[in-house]
Amino acid sequence: MTDPASTTLKPGAETFAHLGRSVAAIRAELGTEPVSVDAIRDPAIYELEREKIFRRTWLKVATTSELPAIGDYKVKDLPVVDASVLIVRGKDGVVRAFHNVCTHRGNKVVPSSDAETFGRARAGVVTCRFHGWVFGTDGPLRSVPLEDHFGTLDKACLGLREIACDTWEGFVFINMADPPEQTLAEYLGDFGTLFGGYPYAEATTAYRYSTVLECNWKVALYAFSEGYHVPTIHAGSLPGFRGIEHSDFKLIGPHASSTIYGLGMEAAASTAECARVLHGSAAHAPHPEQVPPGINPTRRADFQFELPNVFPNLLIHLAAGCGYPGMAFFTHQFWPLDHGRTLWEGINYFRPARNAAERVAQLHVNALHRNAWLEDTATMEDTFTGIRSGAVDTMQLMDQEFLIRHAARTLDRYLAA
Q: Which of 40, 73, 121, 139 is the most exposed place for a label (fewest CB within 10 A)?
């Protein structure tokens, strides 16, 4: 891995001390010694993570494009915090989050059929199917059947219990703490500024994949946080791969990011044709000027994508069409179900296709990503089995794995707080 060849930053980028740091400087900050696997192996540490991390940090649970109209809702079940969360756009257009719990006797107000359930509240209310209690999409208890049969019933105190909710660039975050220790803006800090301004909200076409992996959530997180594995594990999905450089590491409080540079791969004829279709479209062609200052700050022509990590469990891959067939980004999120089971969610986002050719091209790109993700997830259960066996006590990390080292250090700090 080499340091960036150019020091010419984009306008505005020079204000961030996180940019342009050398490998030597990051080694000095993070260290180079092996990292313990105890946090992966020990179930007791997982229980601490639930309380000290997942109940106290801001967690991405939706996007505003999933809730485009008044009354649209999403139910997100989160076993890691023992909660079912109702995210809904109220009559005033504001997106709010509530515990999906009826204040009568604790039943789910909106039944959920999977980890995520979508719907629309008619007339601005949701009704508990158990006894018919009716709640407004802004939270208050609106009506109770046979209300006069309750000796004492203070409806003003029996609305849905609200959860702290805020948005950044179209991503909807919640915080289970009441009240949160920081606002979302404070929690993201410079990360929110560095990676703000990208046209995330324009990419409203989404392709979703998910599966339950028999591994600790950090095994999955770490597998997607480095590029060292690309030449080997992706030899099938990336034939003719010409190599990468994983550099421009940015450590931003609990969050981090890095950049992948490279010459791409020798594309198959079908992939080349899809790239031609998308690059020939004003909506989908590469637009380097649209990326924020924190992405490819030295304006290198071989930029592939940026890899921002939002602690604790969200990864965003920003491609921006540079070296990729079309403006796109995708996310990975890793939700613990218990110490040794993880729900992985991968979502590809595109601007809407305007014709059949663009639609087919996007489907092709989506399939390429899916195939690569299948290769990624194929390693995780084996890794967890190996760590649980006791055969290894530490991870030996190289420079391209700085994000793993940073995440492990951040986790230790939260657990020690």
A: 139
- One-letter amino acid for residue 233 of the chain: I
Specify burial of residue 160 (Cβ count, 10 A radius: 0-12, 13-18, 19+). buried
Q: End-to-end alpha-carbon separation of the chain, Å?
A: 34
> In the predicted model, what is the mean pLDDT of the chain?
89
What are φ and ψ of residue 208, in 5° steps?
Answer: -115, 140
Sequence-separated (6 or more) residues with CB below 8 Å from residue 404: 35, 222, 225, 226, 395, 397
Dist. CA 52–CA 36, nearest whole Å: 19
Assign 287 to helix, strand or coil: coil
For the CA atoms of 57, 60, 61, 64, the dihedral, rounded to the nearest 10 degrees, stands at 140
Residue with tokens 């931003």: 252
pLDDT for position 8: 46
What the chain holds in terms of domains, given with CATH numbers, is 58-180 (2.102.10.10), 190-416 (3.90.380.10)
**Tally of helices (H runs) and strands (E runs) in the chain:** 11, 20
The tens digit of pLDDT for each residue in 23-59 reads 999 999 999 999 999 999 999 999 999 999 999 999 9
CB of 105 within 8 A of CB of 133? no
Give the list of residues 6+ apart from residue 34 with CB closer than 8 angstroms, or none. 394, 395, 396, 397
CA–CA distance, 110 with 72 (Å, rounded to integer)? 12
Q: What are all long-range contacts of 405-409, with beta carbons under 8 Å and residues at least 24 apart?
A: 405/30, 405/31, 405/35, 406/30, 406/251, 406/256, 407/218, 407/221, 407/222, 407/225, 407/256, 407/309, 407/311, 407/312, 408/35, 408/39, 408/218, 409/30
Contact (CB, 8 A) for 87 and 73: yes
pLDDT digits (tens, 9 = 90+) for 58-93: 999 999 999 999 999 999 999 999 999 999 999 999
274 or 116, which is more confident: 116
Q: What is the pLDDT of residue 6?
A: 37
Per residue in 301-318, pLDDT tens?
Answer: 788 888 999 999 999 988
Residue 403: other Cβ atoms inside 10 A: 28
